[in-house]
Design brief:
alpha+beta, Creatine Amidinohydrolase, Chain A, domain 1, Creatine Amidinohydrolase, six-stranded mixed β-sheet, 19 helices, globular
Length: 596
């Protein structure tokens, strides 16, 4: 099937004289996760991971993806004729370096400029020019071969009440206008869906698990125009927005409107987040102020209302996950269960919680060797049966009116090897180390990452992903600009100064191919500690409330500080979750959170 699709695409390329066609994982808004309409890379290669780019040539097809997906991609690409290039590995060229070597005088590079960000598009254009090649950027060739392509999503948009977020849309608009003035901009163009949802206090359903609305915003000192599919907006919501000074125009009117923007005005935008097609739509002499959208930092710093609501969401979510862990431990080996069926069971527990809307991403339920694929995805047709031995990893989360959750727990479903217990304990130590950090204001995630990796590095071990990412409020589960990482990765944009109100995941792991995978993840809230002659100190608060499996811990590897951190955390978990448990669950929870 994949080979047939590639042949059809190559035929369209040949008609246009295109020698290489790039297919990224993106929509018109440079979203990390995309709606079904935009899954072109998946359609053309068969690789289902959330990140990666494909390059199709007449005699060769390549997929680039990162360390989270190496094992998964190898399996999914088997027999497809698509080669895997492992990003960041020694000897593996980047896409741009590959194209520098591949393109030649008179050749042509193609891509859909609406789904390639402007900075990448410009870089590709410069490479092509240097090699005497041309660029064909204004056509979606995959659309020509995808006969049954899903329609563009148009789910209802809805208003998120100020009682959940603590700041009105009028206040947010005023805040952004002030930032525009400081940047010397007359106009601000926003294309990123989470930024728009935050600004307008709206949510939707156009991307699975990410409650956003396909739309654009153009702001001036006097006007806010929301370009959105009219069918998605009710009369009541339209009236609310009108009262806040927001005009509505059709989604399809955005490009014509932008093309007509006056050349003598300064336009604020983030060129890494707008599409290449949008960049090419501006007048040639327009002044572009290329800066990160002010909304990125604003929405990352949660309001006091959002912070308190997130605490509530995590208690409810922790209760659901804890009930699920107890159910699995009680029933494994006694009733049939597999990775797919238990994922459905976990969602049942979440749906029992008041205010639950949907999952915040597709749950990763991975047993034994499958957990070594850190972003593994089970399907009903392809999943492992869970036996009463070894480790089970579950990375999942929910969207609640009170916020977004993301939690990973790995637990024993039966006897473990000494190596499994050793690895579990090292990962847990790292998670608790980072969460206990106390640091001076001005630190970034890169300053603190070693606290999580240290126990593993001391044993010559590591994990091939970032240690943590920012999390939105009833928005994207991955949110810039905060994160934990041991080295700067510019395109991740996750190395900002840690501010009070930022929520970041703390998720070290370890993955042994063919054997097991372990990850322990809490979301932690950055807060101010004391201020003295040395400056403002900062610290973290655990938001995630769920037991860490003591059956998998080697107590002898823990010093007194480790034990205190674990015991203090478990005491908090018991106190907060006890009211949600029935008698049998409560007795188990008391044992599961016992002091060691």
């Amino acid at each position: 099937m994949i080979t047939e699709r590639l042949a059809a695409l190559r035929a369209e390329m040949s008609k246009r004289g295109i020698d290489a066609y790039l297919i990224p994982t993106a929509d018109f808004h440079q979203s990390e996760y995309v709606g079904r309409y935009f899954t072109c890379r998946k359609y053309m290669t068969g690789f289902t991971g959330s990140a990666g780019s494909a390059l199709i040539m007449p005699q060769k097809a390549i997929l680039w993806t990162d360390g989270r997906y190496f094992i998964q991609a190898e399996k999914e690409l088997k027999g497809s004729t698509v080669e895997l290039y492992k990003m960041g590995e020694e000897g593996v060229p980047t896409i741009t370096k590959f194209l520098e070597d591949y393109l030649h005088e008179g050749s042509c590079l193609g891509f859909d400029g609406r789904v390639v960000d402007s900075k990448t598009g410009k870089t590709l254009g410069e490479i092509a020019e240097k090699k005497g090649a041309s660029v064909h950027w204004d056509e979606d060739l995959v659309d020509l071969v995808w006969a049954d392509r899903p329609a563009l999503s148009c789910k209802p948009a809805w208003s998120l009440d100020v009682s959940y977020v603590g700041k009105t849309r009028e206040e947010k608009i005023a805040q952004v206008r002030k930032a525009m003035e400081e940047a010397g901009a007359d106009i601000h163009v926003i294309t990123t869906l989470d930024d728009i949802a935050w600004l307008l206090n709206v949510r939707g359903g156009d991307v699975a698990c990410n409650p956003v609305v396909l739309s654009y915003v153009v702001m001036t000192s006097e006007r806010v125009i929301w370009f959105v599919q009219g069918q998605a907006v009710s009369e009541a919501l339209a009236e609310e927005l009108k009262a806040a000074g927001v005009e509505l125009k059709e989604y399809s009117a955005f490009y014509p409107e932008v093309t007509a923007l006056p050349a003598d005005k300064a336009i604020l935008l983030d060129q890494s987040k707008i599409s290449y097609a949008l960049l090419k739509s501006f007048a040639a002499d327009v002044k572009l102020v290329d800066k990160q959208n002010p909304t990125v930092l604003m929405k990352a710093i949660k309001t006091p209302v959002e912070m308190e609501n997130m605490r509530k969401a995590h208690i409810k979510d922790g209760a659901a996950l804890t009930k699920f862990i107890y159910w699995m431990k009680k029933n494994v080996g006694k009733i049939p269960m597999d990775e797919y069926s238990v994922g459905e069971k976990l969602e049942e527990f979440r749906r029992e919680q008041e205010g639950f809307l949907e999952n915040s991403f597709g749950a990763i339920c991975a047993y034994g060797p499958n957990a070594a694929q850190c972003h593994y995805s089970a399907s009903k047709e392809n999943c492992a049966v869970i036996e009463a031995r070894g480790l089970f990893l579950c990375d999942s989360g929910g969207q609640y009116y009170e916020g977004t959750t993301d939690v990973t727990r790995t637990w024993a479903v039966g006897p473990l090897t000494h190596e499994e217990k050793l690895h579990f304990t090292l990962v847990m130590k790292g998670m608790l180390n980072l969460a206990a950090a106390k640091f001076l204001y001005g630190c970034r995630g890169i300053n603190l990452d070693y606290l999580a990796r240290g126990p593993l590095w001391e044993q010559g071990l590591d994990f091939n992903h970032g240690t943590g990412h920012g999390v939105g409020y009833l928005l994207n589960v991955h949110e810039a600009p905060n994160g934990f990482r041991w080295r700067i990765v510019p395109e991740r944009n996750d190395s900002c100064i840690l501010e009070e109100g930022m929520i970041t995941s703390d998720e070290p792991g370890l993955y042994i191919e063919g054997s097991h995978g372990i990850r322990t993840e809490n979301l932690i809230l950055c807060k101010k500690a004391e201020k003295n002659q040395y400056g403002q100190f900062m610290e973290f608060e655990h938001l995630t409330m769920a037991p860490i499996d003591l059956d998998a811990v080697v107590p002898e590897l823990l010093d007194e500080t480790d034990k205190k951190r674990l015991n203090d955390y478990h005491r908090d978990v018991y106190e907060k979750l006890a009211p949600y448990m029935d008698e049998e669950e409560l007795a188990w929870l008391a044992e599961a959170t016992r002091a060691i």
